[in-house]
Structure formats: structure tokens, C-alpha cells
Design brief:
heterodimer, A: 161 residues, alpha/beta, Rossmann fold, 5 helices, globular, B: 340 residues, Nucleotidyltransferase, domain 5, 2 domains, five-stranded mixed β-sheet, 10 helices, 10 strands, 39% helix, 18% strand
């Protein structure tokens, strides 16, 4: 398991973090996003999608109602939101396990609610609002793919300081 | 007089499993939605089951019910229609697969319809006034999108939300305010008790030219107004006048942006007709401001009746236009997640 924690002062810094992370993602990356309403989960997904060279990041919108949005980019992006699901079984019924292995990137908002059905190899991002602008972001990676990504990302992060 | 063509349409893009029967002269003979029938109660309560499996289980009973209510036998169906985009691919596939099988078995044409364009066409179904060309506006839980519609099938996407849909913002703000389920209607009720000018919430993009929306900023603004700078989601505010004032001010801000952008689009494309579909049109404040502003600017407004606003299969009557043009799908038809 690897872990980093950083503090971002505002939305622009959150976006930079997301874009940078997006560049390092590999096929079959699973990222769980957690944080209260208004923490900026969807915003972060948009930024990660930009890091994955999505042609038009305006197409990244909240999947709360649609449940899964799909966006073509360097890797196919599957953007989940489990906020509205009545239980974990509904998440499995969505075909979650199939999506994990489709060679793309799965980004799951409110992932804590389905933690029994997240793969072992995954990145978990916890966003904690400090105030209206500032956020504390904790990134935890477990498993080979996820740890590799976080290692490379952390190297870049330290290198650019 | 020739016999009418009977269409059987299926919808399974998200939560709802639905079927409808209509004729080529736009008469809706039945419009059955699983969650709104006793069928749903028999199978599992009020929480929408969000799974392909639920669609699979609901489809045949819903189709049977739609034929029964229309008083039509399956053999009389002359065309099978399905919403194949946009939506949850696994769910859409259920409707698409069923429609293919029916079309093959009955040996009748298959037509694929875009669910979002169906929401716009729903305005035309019961209305005899010519509606096109117009600005089409879909405002629901999952979508907030403007279109320039030259005719029912020649449609250009102008812009939509960059984050949350309007209906979603209503639901999430209702959750922040502790108003429970169903969020949208509860928030509207709460707003009636409050002062819409009590708080000035952000009206994102209101003064800009772009035909786009963003409702995540107002959601956050409500959160911090309701709960202070160190917002903890678990600390709900009480049920006093503050909550009603926040609800009313939030609703006013959202509705103002929605209506202003729609009017802006109408003016920009000089079409003078506005067709508004989707579940959020059930909100009275939205509806009233739309009517008021359309009257003010001499814009012809088209709004569908309630049962054609929320997700349903009758709005797939857009297929009538495709039928006239011979625009049929074949058995390789696929479900697609995105509408553009």
C-alpha cells in the first residue's frame, strides 16, 4: 500500500492535481472517489479526464442520474456514481466487475458505499473540504497497477517541487 | 381511409421500463411505465431498481399491459420502436434486444429513436400547432440541454450542463436541507414557504453568451449557507424559516438561469418557438416563469402533459417521422451511452 496526502488551495489546484494524475493512469485502473456533497468529486473526474486527453472535457458531467457515463479518451473512461443506488447488489447488477476488466479507467464516485465490490488493486481518493475553497486530498493505492501509478505520480510531484 | 399503422415502443434507458402503443397519426393508445403501475408494487416497492435485471423482468409484463390498454393484438403491430441512446448501455440493451426480436418475429420494421429528442418531440405529440423549427430544451434529473431543432430529426446540440443537471441539483440540495425523498417535489413545497430573495445564490453563466449551464457552484453555495464554513453533511439545519428561505432562493436562482438561457437561445436562432421537456417541467415555479417570459417576448411555448414529461415510451412517437422517411434500423442496432 502506498499513500500520499496533499492540500490544494482552490479549484484550480484540484484541477492540476487531477490532470497530472490522469497522465499516469494505466489500463484497468480503478479509482474510488470519496468526499461529501460539494467536495468536488465530479470536478476531479473532469480534470483526470483532461489528463487522459479527452477531446472535450465539457462532456464530463455528473452521472448521479445516469449511473455510468462513458467517455472515449486515451483510455476509455467509465464514470460511475453510486450515490443513488439502493444497495451494493445494484452496483454489481450494473456490471461493475465487467467494467473493471474492459481495459479502460473506472472512476467511481461515492465508492465507500460499494467497498465490498471494489477490486483489491485500486486507488482511493478521499477529498476533505477544509473550507469553501481549500481541500485536503488523500490518495491511497493498493495492488500492483495502482501502486505503480502512484509511485510514478509521486516522483513527478516531488521532482517538480 | 387507410388503416393506421400501429407502433409498439420500448424504453429502458435508465430507471424506468416502459412500453407504449401509438398510431402513425400521433394518437397515443397506451403509455405504460413499470414504476407507475401495480406491477411495480407487486415486484418490489417504490425504490427504483436500477439494473438490467429489473428491465428484463419488467419488459414482457409492460409490453403485455401496453397492448391490453391499447386493445391491440401483437400481430397488429406494424413497426417496433426503441430508445437506443443515450443512457446506461446495459439497460438500453434490454430494450434494444427485445425490440429486435419483436421486429424479427413480427417481420415489421425496427426504428431506433434518441431518448433526448423524444423528450422534445413529446411537446408536439398532443399539440396541433406546428412546433418546428424551435429551440428544444430538455430539463431532467440527468440532462439539462438546449437544441436547435429545424425539424423533428434535424437537430443541433447547442450546449448543456458542465456538471450537475438541474433536476439533480434539486435533489441534492433537498438532501443538504434534509428534505428527504422525493427531493425535487419536497424542495418545491418547502420553497413555497420561503422568501426567494432572502439569499443571492450564484447564477452561473447567466450574463455570458454561451448556452451552457453549471449547477455545482450553487449546490456548494447552499451547503455553506446552510451549514457554515466548516460544513459537515451530517449536521442538518432545522426546519425553520431559514430552510424555507434557502429553498426558495435556490429555486429562484436555478429557474432564472434555466429560463434566461432558453430565451437567449430562442433569440439567437430567431425561431420564436420553445419546446421544453423532461421531469423538471413539473416544477411550478419553472413553469410559471417560462410562461411569463414567453408571453413577454411573444414566444410560442410547448410543454407536454405530465405523463409525457418523465421517462416514458410514448415520446418515442418521434419514430413516426422516421417511418415516413423509411429510416429503419437493422438487426445490428447497438445501444449507445452518449447522445452526441
Amino acid at each position: 500500500m502506498k499513500q500520499i496526502t496533499l492540500t490544494v488551495a482552490n479549484l484550480q489546484e484540484t484541477e492540476k492535481f487531477g490532470r497530472d494524475l490522469g497522465r499516469y493512469l494505466l489500463p484497468n485502473t480503478i479509482i474510488g472517489l470519496n468526499g461529501p456533497l460539494g467536495a468536488g468529486k465530479t470536478h476531479l473526474v473532469k480534470a483526470i479526464a483532461e489528463g487522459l486527453n479527452i477531446p472535450n472535457s465539457a462532456s464530463v458531467t455528473s452521472p448521479t442520474f445516469g449511473l455510468i457515463h462513458e467517455y472515449p479518451s486515451r483510455l476509455m473512461i467509465y464514470h460511475f456514481d453510486v450515490y443513488r443506488l439502493p444497495n451494493e447488489e445494484a452496483f454489481v447488477d450494473l456490471g461493475a466487475y465487467e467494467y473493471y476488466e474492459m481495459g479502460g479507467v473506472c472512476l467511481i464516485e461515492w465508492a465507500d458505499r460499494v467497498k465490498n465490490h471494489l477490486p483489491e488493486d485500486r486507488i482511493e481518493i478521499h477529498i476533505t473540504p477544509v473550507d469553501e475553497q481549500q481541500r485536503s486530498i488523500q490518495v491511497v493505492a493498493s495492488g500492483t497497477i495502482s501502486e505503480t501509478i502512484l509511485e510514478r505520480f509521486a516522483e513527478k510531484l516531488n521532482g517538480s517541487d | 381511409m387507410t388503416n393506421p399503422v400501429y407502433f409498439l415502443a420500448l424504453e429502458s434507458s435508465c430507471d424506468e421500463t416502459a412500453a407504449a402503443v401509438f398510431t402513425d397519426d400521433r394518437r397515443i393508445l397506451s403509455n405504460v411505465v413499470a414504476s407507475q403501475t401495480e406491477l411495480h408494487a407487486r415486484f418490489g416497492g417504490v425504490v427504483p431498481e436500477i439494473a438490467s435485471r429489473a428491465h428484463l423482468r419488467n419488459l414482457l409484463p409492460v409490453i403485455d399491459e401496453s397492448l391490453r390498454q391499447a386493445n391491440i393484438r401483437l400481430e397488429q403491430i406494424g413497426c417496433v420502436v426503441v430508445h437506443n441512446m443515450p443512457g446506461l448501455v446495459g439497460s438500453l440493451m434490454m430494450g434494444v434486444s427485445a425490440a429486435k426480436i419483436l421486429s424479427l418475429a413480427l417481420n415489421v420494421p425496427l426504428i431506433a429513436v434518441n431518448h433526448i429528442l423524444g423528450h422534445i418531440y413529446a411537446c408536439q405529440i398532443p399539440d396541433s400547432r406546428p412546433m418546428y423549427p424551435c429551440i428544444g430544451f430538455v430539463v431532467s434529473g440527468g440532462h439539462t440541454a438546449l437544441f436547435h431543432c429545424q425539424d423533428p430529426l434535424t437537430v443541433q446540440f447547442l450546449g448543456g450542463t458542465r456538471d450537475d443537471a438541474a433536476g439533480e441539483a434539486f435533489d441534492k440540495v433537498a438532501a443538504i436541507l434534509g428534505l428527504g425523498f422525493p427531493g425535487g417535489p419536497n424542495l418545491e413545497k418547502e420553497a413555497q414557504k420561503g422568501d426567494p430573495n432572502a439569499y443571492q445564490f450564484p447564477r452561473t453563466f447567466l450574463k455570458e453568451d454561451r448556452l451552457e449551464f453549471s449547477f455545482s457552484g450553487i449546490k456548494t453555495a447552499v451547503l455553506y449557507t446552510a451549514q457554515g464554513q466548516d460544513a459537515k453533511i451530517s449536521e442538518k439545519i432545522g426546519s425553520g424559516p431559514t430552510r424555507a428561505n434557502i429553498a426558495a432562493s435556490f429555486q429562484r436562482a436555478v429557474v432564472e438561469v434555466l429560463v434566461s438561457k432558453a430565451i437567449q437561445a430562442v433569440k439567437k436562432f430567431r425561431v420564436n418557438r420553445l419546446a421544453v421537456g423532461g421531469g423538471v417541467i413539473a416544477n411550478q415555479a419553472f413553469r410559471q416563469l417560462l410562461i411569463q417570459e414567453c408571453n413577454k417576448y411573444g414566444i410560442e411555448l410547448f410543454i407536454p402533459p405530465r405523463d409525457l414529461c418523465t421517462d416514458n415510451a410514448a415520446m418515442a412517437a418521434l419514430a413516426i417521422e422516421k417511418y415516413k422517411q423509411g429510416d429503419f434500423a437493422n438487426l445490428s442496432l447497438d445501444a449507445e451511452a452518449n447522445f452526441i
